[in-house]
Amino acid sequence: MSSCHCTDPNGHLIVPQASIIARKKEAKAEELQAAKEEMSNIERQMLQKANQARELDGAEVLKGDEFKRYVNKLRSKNTLYKKKRLEIAEITAEFGILQRTEELLKQRHETIQQQLVMPHSVFLRQFHFEKV
């Protein structure tokens, strides 16, 4: 048996298939190398942008779990802020009501004071007329 006339169980020659597979493997290796180079370029760009961001505001760019923790922290702060803002609105409304109540009570007090002074002055006038 010679090595160049090998056949598979279907009777096809194996040598041409091996060269086709070798060419496909070589093409995939080139694609892989190109993808690795592209990934390397993108990683380099990402590092440059992270450095630029750090230079601009001094903070590091958050990734993955750090970013998730940061987002959760912001959400909890936002919820707390909304609760406090609601409390302030309620207190402001109550303050307005209390101001109006105080105003009404002052008016009532003045009215009662005037009513108390009037009968007293009427009594004094009557007393004065009776003496004369």
TrEMBL record:
It comes from the Eukaryota. One of its GO terms (biological process) is cilium assembly. The keyword Coiled coil applies. Residues 18-52 form a coiled coil. GO terms for cellular component: ciliary basal body; intraciliary transport particle B. Signal peptide: none annotated. GO terms for molecular function: tubulin binding. Keywords: Coiled coil. This is Uncharacterized protein.
